[in-house]
Every structure is written in structure tokens, then in C-alpha cells.
Amino acid sequence: xxxxxxxxxxxxxxxxxxxxxxxxxxxxxxxxxxxxxxxxxxxxxxxxxxxxxxxxxxxxxxxxxxxxxxxxxxxxxxxxxxxxxxxxxxxxxxxxxxxxxxxxxxxxxxxxxxxxxxx
Length: 119
Known about the structure:
Blueprint: H1 9-40, H2 45-70, H3 82-86, H4 90-103, H5 105-118
Helix pairs in contact: 4-5
């Protein structure tokens, strides 16, 4: 690293504050989920903790795989954005399943009835 490539204190503080802010948001969401799973849903705390651990382990495995898929060197004639287009269909379809009850509220009622009848 040459002397012109050093990071200033201002940049270090800026990145540190951004990282701290994202950590506060993440920890808050974990606390809210822990409260929901234990007090509202009724899951035992040990099961909830195990579930959080398994999800974090799965995340630790899949993040490098997704990064590798996205950052593969482009083939001849491809641009950098070829990795983004690979996820162009799965991502909107996954988002659709999350917002589907808002768009089709009656479909959710029929789905719940079907689950009740078929079980």
C-alpha cells in the first residue's frame, strides 16, 4: 500500500458509524423476532435459539455461494451485469409470494380453507 492509498480518520469513522447503524437495526429485528417466537407464538426459547443458529449457519454457507455466482468473470461479449440478470426471475417471484396476500386477499381465505379441508 502506497502512502496515497491510506484511509483517512474521517472515512474510518464514517464506515464505523454505518456499520454500527446496521448492527443496531439487525439486533433490533432479532430482539423483536425473539419476543414474537417465544411470547406470542409460544416456541420454547431453546428451540428459537437453535432455529436462529441454524439460519445463521445456513446464511454463512449460502452468502459466499451467491457472491461467487454473482461475481463470476464475464464470458466473451458479456458485461458486468450478467450476474444480475441471472437473478432477475427468482427475486421478483419470491417478492410476489410475500406481497400476494395484499394483492389477492380473498385468495388467502381460500388457501386457508383448502389447508383446513385437506388436513
